[in-house]
# Entry
Amino acid sequence: MNIERYLTDHRQGTPRQILRLLRQGRVTVNDAAVDSPLTDVVKADQVRVDGMAVTGRQPQYLIFNKPIGFQLSMDPTSAHSLGSLLNTLDQVRPLKALADLPKEATGLVLASDDDHFLTDVAAQKWVSTLRMPLAGVVTELPTLAADLTFSAVKLVPDTLHQTTTATVQTRDLNAAVPTLLALKAINGPVSRIALGPMALPVDLSVASYRGLFPTEIDDLNGPLESSTESQTETSSKLG
# Structure
């Protein structure tokens, strides 16, 4: 059996994730690093990922809808933290959050016990899409239009209810969130509704979370190099 099939059978991630593990030098067979998905392994071999036997790894990938004021700590004993929202089973995992959303904002936050996944996602420098309600019918926000922190500023007025929904995109949340909260017309929370290709699920209520689907994990990690994609096709045919 080749190493790619072995890792797949032991639930070490999607095919694309497994190729990343190999490419990043995180897989060893009998203490020797392997980088080819076609490397053969047998039952007697000691296969490890990040130094741990594959049977004990089973990484976790989560998406939260963070409430306002909650810290990104995953400590389950800390009040007003993401960790306090975890169920009993997930509390024992060494989870970390992608620390990029200020506590003053609500919405999409990623967490995992796979540090490399969080590093890979951060390296993509994905654009965040933020949404906020405004009081009154607002047709322009010149301060945001002139601010290089923001792009794709969109206003959707509701003349019936005399409100406006504003959405913006930014790569600098630490600068963007305070600026948005300082708007005179703001009438509710600043929420992150998307991070790059990952949209906040419409059925994920505030203060809840769920696991990421394999396609969502792959999308967040970004594309692999073309040569690696070729390896995937070859190994899939031979596996």
Q: What stands out?
A: The first helix runs from residue 3 to 9.
